[in-house]
Amino acid sequence: MQRVFSVSMIRAREATAVKAAGPDELMKRAARGVANAVQDVYEAGEVAALVGGGDNGGDALYAAAFLRREGVPAKVVLLSDHPHERALAAAREAGVQIYQPALNSADILPLLTPATVWIDGIVGTGAEGALKEPLASIVTTLENVRLQLPARKVVAVDVPSGLATPDGMVPGGALRADIVVTMGALKPSAVFPPACYHQSEVRLVDLGLELGPHFARVLEAADVREVVAIPSATDHKYSRGVVRLAVGSQKYPGAAVLATLGARGAGAGMIRLVTDEAARALVLAAAPEAVTVDGRVQAVAVGCGLDPQNLEDRSRIATQIFAAKVPLVVDAGAISVAAQLVHSGQAGAQQMVWTPHAGEAAEALSILDESEWTRERVEEAPIKTAMRLAGLSGAVIALKGAATLIVSPRGHVFVQAQAPAWAGTAGSGDVLAGVIAAVLAGVQARVEEEAGSLDWEELARAVAAGVWLHGVAARRAAGFEDADGQAGGVALRPGYGLEGGRPIAASDIARNLPGAFGQALQARKHSAREAL
Ligand SMILES: NC(=O)C1=CN([C@@H]2O[C@H](COP(=O)(O)OP(=O)(O)OC[C@H]3O[C@@H](n4cnc5c(N)ncnc54)[C@H](OP(=O)(O)O)[C@@H]3O)[C@@H](O)[C@H]2O)[C@@H](O)CC1
Ligand SMILES: [K+]
């Protein structure tokens, strides 16, 4: 599990740790991490460090000194008249060339264009809000130049400058980073969109900080293993979790097939299908395991392939919502119906999980918030939006995207970004709804056996586990070798710029679910072995 902390918490704990350590000790450790990342991408030519006037620039200066001593031609371009003094002296002493150009693009660019790697040490967590001029214009120009020469690599110190926002918002121009070497703990910009889309890879330098409560969590394989249901010798189809899928219509029969394949691949003990006649035949042809007799279930998914404009579909959705006594996944067209039922006080007591994409979240908020919401407004501030929607709906929200945000009405936050960009394809969401329902059914079955009830945190965590399974299945389908999106402690963000993979269809994701599930089980074996 990875934890994400607020910028203010990290800064406060850093300050304590800095006092306790020797002069610039932590800064040098941070710089070592930056220099290592540069060494990993460096091939030839020179490295240029962009250095601002705070400790972020100090990290970059020490990194340049390390690199120079290791034989890499590193130079420093100062963008402040008061750079960190000791770090500057260390760079000079190492033989790094120091330039102090006038603060405009015309003077700065000729120093930077020859370099093959740029270190972004302009500002870190000390900068609030958008970059101020003239740095803002300079960064915008640099980003345009970088886009024209994609072979150049950018290694950002701590955060891409200007993105140390509390919520992953992007307040102005930013220099996209191939690698972000972040200090002490993951910051919101590392995981929350849209800021996280400005970085391909995030590496963490451990500074041994004593951190308090986290803001968000990222599940890894071993955490998923703790959530999903693994059958024991005495288990049977009912005790493993039964799912009802109220999905698919004459208009969209394929959605029923995909949701069924999703639930089947994620280990449902049994699937009860409530669907249109035309869809039923298709589902049974693709998944003869599905039964069309209704009965007791431990989780329900409703909405995939249902049209809220169609009266019959609408009433099917409402029936499922009213009847829900077990966790209920509300997807696609059913979300706006659920929003109307919550708004009119007819629903809200049920344990619901809504799985909107940005457009559906905007629609639901327009109903619940009584103000106009657009897809763009959601995409500007996804985590704030998801938290608002969770509060208003009383449901766990899984706001889908390259990074999917899972937020409970009690403020539990998970972020999962395993899925490659290839996963954004028609029917992918139907598969996900089935997967989440299957995971929830397993968890609910366990809870029922102990005569307990699911709390919000367990519910949100189970949803995050479902999102992990779906994302990893998509990675496997798309042929990524680092199938879990982690490699050597490095969180990879394949959808955010790394090349690779291949086109996939929603049914390819479903087919790869058992493999993803197996991968989660393997993770535990490894950690158990390590513990011995
Ligand atoms: N503390 C630690 O333990 C460790 C911290 N570490 C590192 O310290 C970093 C935090 O350093 P920090 O606090 O010095 O702030 P920092 O990000 O360099 O920014 C200050 C500079 O930015 C400028 N500036 C501000 N706002 C701006 C704006 N809107 N637009 C434009 N400019 C703006 C401001 O300008 P000034 O007001 O001085 O003219 C000043 O020059 C952290 O991210 C990590 O990298 C590591 O060494 C590990 C140990
Ligand atoms: K930076």
TrEMBL record:
It catalyses: (6R)-NADPHX = (6S)-NADPHX; (6S)-NADPHX + ADP = AMP + phosphate + NADPH + H(+); (6R)-NADHX = (6S)-NADHX; (6S)-NADHX + ADP = AMP + phosphate + NADH + H(+). AMP binds at K400, G401, A402, A403, T404, G429. (6S)-NADPHX binds at residues 55-59, 124-130, 158, 255, 305, 357, 430. Residues 220-520 form the YjeF C-terminal domain. GO terms for molecular function: ADP-dependent NAD(P)H-hydrate dehydratase activity; ATP binding; metal ion binding; NAD(P)HX epimerase activity. Transmembrane segments: none annotated. Its EC number is 4.2.1.136, 5.1.99.6. Keywords: ATP-binding, Isomerase, Lyase, Metal-binding, Multifunctional enzyme, NAD, NADP, Nucleotide-binding, Potassium. InterPro entries: Carbohydrate_kinase_pred_CS (IPR017953), CARKD (IPR000631), Nnr (IPR030677), Ribokinase-like (IPR029056), YjeF_N_dom (IPR004443), YjeF_N_dom_sf (IPR036652). This is Bifunctional NAD(P)H-hydrate repair enzyme.
